[in-house]
Design brief:
The protein is elongated and about 100 Å long. Helix 10 runs antiparallel to helix 11. The strands form three sheets. It has a two-stranded antiparallel ribbon. Strands 3-4 form a two-stranded parallel sheet. The longest helix is centred in the N-terminal third of the chain and has 37 residues. It is mainly α and 442 residues long. The two termini are 53 Å apart. 63% of the residues lie in helices and 5% in strands.
Amino acid sequence: MNPQSFIASLSFDIRLAPYDILGSIAHARMLSRARIIPARDAQRIITGLTAIAKDLEKGKRLPPEEDIHYAIERELIRRIGPVGGKLHTARSRNDQVALDLRLYLRDQIDLVLCEIERLQQAIVAVAEDNLDVVMPGFTHMQHAQPILFSHHLLAYAWMLQRDKGRLRDARHRTNEMPLGSAALAGTSFPIDRKYVARQLGFAQVTANSIDAVSDRDFLVEFCAAASLVMTHLSRLCEELILWSSSEFNIIRLADDFTSGSSIMPQKRNPDVAEIIRGETGRIYGNLIALLTILKGLPLSYNRDLQEDKPPLFDTVDTLQGCLAVTTPMIATLSVRAERMRALCARGYLVATELADYLTEKGVPFRTAHGTVKRIVGYCEKQHIRLDELTLEELKRFDGLFDEGALRVLSIDQVVHVKDSEGGTSPRRVRQQITQLKRLMRS
């Protein structure tokens, strides 16, 4: 392979073109304002860059070069002559690419935040529509206690809320302006970095020029936050896959999000959810790739850093795509409330309530726990549910049981009394929905 072809990056860093032009225009204005280049030259440069940007928007291609930075600069010189070469005054490709990446990632984080919010809105809407639907709650994939389906679904809205917080934090650290660091040591030209930062909407300029050109922490931080978003999407998809199976059969995914089998005509495979679950591994791999690229690099810039872009771009594309398809998948699913309630008859879900009842009568909880465990064993042998027990049968295990014990065996009653803050009672779930809506508006 030709060595120049081997080191070329234009095939993937072409997507930085709008940001490279945006940063270059800001740089040209600063050079003029600081009287480093004549105003007329700066204006010719800006006009030329604007024309290139418009052509790229129309789908026109740049002549092949080593990377997007050279490609734009060479095209500018071709169009306006040698004056285009003045654009590179007081900057290096090292700080130029650092700027482009920060501009690019800042925009992509904003887009991801919007996608997450749309997904949250879909989750909240489905929760509101099914507020009082009761389902079995699970621990260790075993029936545990009855809960509201809305409560279970809202758990994912809260995971996504934390994801937004991490992404906003990452955006804050991304929003520092590195241009003016030049190759690594800064520049002797009287540049105005803060002026460039204001033009480009950065909160501040980077403090150390060596760090500025070699720092890729903001990419790692984004990919780590993206990995957690994908973890949450994958967990949600795993539940959708289980819930839509014949064994659970408590939801139905819309046909758009399933596909048939090539051989079995009865099948409805949850392919979209499965692919999202699989894509999660790709995102994890991208994070590890970035960390591995960085782990042994001496300061300052090294060409290894060119390899930061493929994993970043893949993470951005994959994350945005997964979020965009999960939202309508959630919004269009059908909830089978009667099936959920029927499943609550299995697994002795109200056993804890029976133990709590004895505890309220003064029995130590551990003693009450052992008593109810024996009651469950009795029910298993008799092939009956807890709510089918008579008072006489309960009294055989503890004389403190009375008529009130029979009332706590109601599934609906159990759900309503779980009224601690953050609990599964309808009142507390409505509070969650109100709180989430307020957070999503802020």
